[in-house]
Request: fold
Amino acid sequence: MKYMVSCSLIFVFFVSVAHGAEGGGQGQADAPRKRSASLRDLVLKKSHSGGSLGDTEQEQYERLSTESPTDVDFKPGDVGDTALIMSVKKGSRSLSATNLLLTHNANPNVVDNQKMSVLHHALRNKDRQHFNLLVTKMSLGSLNGLDSSGLAPLHYAILWGDLDVVAKLLEKGVNKMLLTEAGQTPLQLVQSAGHDTKTSVILAEMLKPEN
Reply:
């Protein structure tokens, strides 16, 4: 319980500082934006180790939490990563951080500047643990969303070749006829993915258009 409370404080601390960076002039925003960048590292480091806030960090948290509203989906910098996106990109070792962010109402449907959602990142990284956690929490629109490379989560799953992952996406109602930006159907993607014969045959059967 102490571990959960400590980690929760870190996340609130991070988003409080990050949100505060939005207000004021450019000069006033620079300092909190820099602090938010370092706190993003702190969030994951502390949540992985189970460490608690130090005395100075605790004082900062108490001060900032009263001065600034929290915004767990704040996206500092050019990359556009929310804390949740950052956590998923770190892989399965940051699953506890992802869970805590979701507990604090982080929005899994937010995309980064490459139009990639947390599910895009999980699938591109072949991270089944994050996929299983996130797939049930996302809207159908996000599940069918194309990133800047023109691929939806289903396309990444096909390229991965994980039958269970493809099956779960289909169970969630994703469009099995959804074209890539290059105009490929999921079936055509199977044919060009280079999987073994058995996997290709099963995928083709799963993605066969309904009569």
In short: The chain has a mean pLDDT of 77. DSSP finds twelve helices and no strands in the chain.
